[in-house]
Design goal:
By secondary structure, this protein is an alpha/beta fold. It has 2 domains: 329 residues, Nucleotidyltransferase, domain 5 (2-Layer Sandwich), CATH 3.30.420; 65 residues, no CATH class. It contains 20 helices and 15 strands. Strand 10, helix 18 and strand 11 form a beta-alpha-beta unit. Helix 3 runs parallel beside helix 8, helix 11 packs antiparallel against helix 17 and helix 13 packs across helix 17. The longest helix is centred in the N-terminal third of the chain and has 26 residues. It binds adenosine-5'-diphosphate and magnesium ion. The site of magnesium ion has 5 residues, from loops.
């Protein structure tokens, strides 16, 4: 019987660094009980903060500054080392050998995320572009300032979207012109092969790319975990994570997995942090406890303008990143405002709070009865933000995720440990919609890439509730037969009968008398 079904407990590490780019969070967890009702207990938590130069470099790259492929490639490997160090660090903290860890789930560091949600928003902007085309150069800067979100459509425009394509879009026809239309794309770095090499633990990564390739938004990824760990029999729950971006998972009372919805509501700490960095010339990166903002007054006309930003009106599912609420947003709405710093910070804090409130009012409360709001993420330390949420949503019982055994700073990292564990167990997204559909119909497709190196195997993974299918990459620790001492573990996957699904990760046969034991069936590298 597989471990998860038997409820046998195992250790897993989750690694997470979000859009705040503050550092790598590592959570060592013990997972037990069954797949449908897992128990996840935090054993230790560790954060490896990014040095200032790395944070600045990441902010530049993610902020869209021109960069060389060499820079991104180098960052990918450097962060791989950092993520590995965070994983080893949390094991040291718990005084547990990494050998006892069954899997590492690594989210990686997002440096770009763009999720297109249907033809409508594209249409809106393309229509604008069609009008603007003759004077595009002259108006480009102005248009960018007014529509930071529209910026990305310049790319497609620059590549020259033809009239035919535009007409098809206007009619709402599905267009499969991937050469010309900007398709959804996302990039998380922190090379999983490096993490596997340094820790000798299998690593599951590329959760977002997998979800996006399968038709999801690639974000948020945690709703399934929220469903597994936070669902209540008699109360509707909203789990709100306030990282760089804020996202919600909506879990109706006694919900089936298929009823759970998750989406990004807009900025979490991103706009606040951006202003603090500007005001302090980078010496500080956040408003501790929200104290700075607490001394100011929200600028209502500015707030109203920002609330009209197209992202907020868009129907879920939707996701956001630095592309929407990073520097272009700050420049468009805050630059050159002759108001005091506390007022501007208060306005940014209020934007986060009201965008969460608006999203719940618009998209959630009309459909789902909600009684509880569970807050997590670094934003939970912002007392002003939590106080304002309580004031705006007095009908909800609002508490921190700490009360549910998920400390606010560790929750997302814990989630990736659980997602990786599920992936390694070969569990699909565990949604009714998935269970019901038949093999080959785009549900829970399980596959292995034959072209790739033996270490890189695709496994069914954690899935966004809305995506039709999803996979993520599993990195196995390398086999170095000549250098591996006797008894040290190496791994291989065995195929299921259909040859598609890895049945389990097996330890190799016992070491030979001569000492070094090559992994059978694996090529020497
Ligand atoms: N004491 C605090 N007071 C106010 N904000 C805080 C505090 N500690 C952390 N934060 C905010 O939380 C952010 C980090 O949150 P986190 O959940 O790690 O986000 P992400 O997932 O985007 O990395 C910081 O950038 C900061 O804005
Ligand atoms: Mg963080």
């Amino acid at each position: 019987m597989p471990e998860h079904a038997a409820g046998k407990s195992r250790l897993a590490v989750g690694l997470m660094s979000g859009t705040s780019m503050d550092g790598v969070d590592a959570a060592l967890v013990r997972i037990s009980a069954t797949a449908d009702h897992p128990k996840v207990r935090l054993v230790a938590f560790h954060t490896l903060p990014y040095p200032k130069e790395v944070e600045d470099q990441l902010l530049r790259v993610a902020g869209g500054e021109p960069t060389f492929a060499e820079g991104i490639s180098g960052l990918n490997f450097m962060l791989g080392e950092a993520f590995a160090e965070a994983a080893l660090g949390v094991c040291r903290k718990a005084r547990i050998s990494p050998k006892r860890v069954s899997v590492i789930g690594s989210h990686g560091q997002t440096i770009h995320h763009y999720a297109r949600s249907g033809p409508l928003p594209a249409l809106e902007f393309l229509g604008e572009f069609a009008k603007l085309r003759p004077e595009l150069d002259a108006t480009q800067r102005k248009f960018k300032r007014r529509n930071p979100e529209g910026e990305m459509y310049f790319i497609s425009f620059d590549y020259g979207i033809g009239r035919k394509l535009l007409k098809a879009l206007q009619k709402g026809k599905p267009v499969k012109d991937f050469w010309n239309l900007p398709s959804s794309h996302t990039l998380q770095i922190a090379e999983a092969a490096v993490i596997a090499e340094r820790t000798s633990v299998p690593v599951v990564s590329d959760f977002r790319t997998a979800d996006m390739a399968a038709g999801g938004q690639g974000a948020p990824l945690v709703p399934m975990v929220d469903y597994l760990l936070l669902r209540q029999k008699r109360e509707g729950v909203v789990a709100l994570n306030v990282g760089g971006i804020a996202n919600v998972t909506v879990i109706p009372a006694n919900a089936e997995a298929g009823q759970v919805v998750g989406f990004d509501t807009g900025p979490g700490n991103m706009v606040i942090d951006g202003l603090v960095r500007q005001f302090t010339k980078g010496r500080k990166s956040y408003d501790a406890g929200g104290r700075w903002a607490a001394g100011g007054k929200a600028i209502e006309p500015l707030l109203e303008r920002m609330r009209r930003f197209p992202f907020f009106r868009r129907e879920p599912p939707k996701s956001a990143g630095r592309e929407q609420f990073g520097k272009p947003f700050l420049d468009a709405y805050f630059r050159g405002r002759g108001r005091s710093r506390p007022d501007l910070l208060r306005t940014a804090t209020e934007l986060t709070v009201r965008s969460v409130y608006d999203a719940l009012e618009r998209f959630v409360f009309p459909k789902v009865s909600v009684q509880r709001l569970i807050v997590s993420g670094g934003g939970a330390h912002n007392r002003l933000l939590v106080r304002r949420l309580r004031e705006l949503l007095p009908q909800l019982h609002i508490s921190l995720s700490d009360d549910y055994g998920l400390p606010v700073d560790a929750k997302e990292a814990m989630a990736f440990a659980l997602l990786a564990d599920r992936s390694l167990q070969g569990l699909p997204g565990n949604l009714p919609a998935v269970k019901e559909c038949r093999r080959g119909e785009g549900c829970g497709r399980q596959r292995r890439s034959n072209q790739r190196a033996w270490r890189e195997v695709f496994l069914p993974s954690a899935r966004h509730p809305r995506s039709a299918e999803g996979f993520c990459r599993a990195e196995l620790p390398p086999a170095r037969p000549s250098s591996r001492p006797a008894g040290q573990r190496c791994w291989r996957s065995s195929r299921s009968r259909d040859g598609l699904r890895p049945r389990s990760w097996q330890r190799p046969t016992a070491p030979s008398a001569t000492g070094a034991q090559p992994c059978p069936s694996l090529p020497s590298l």
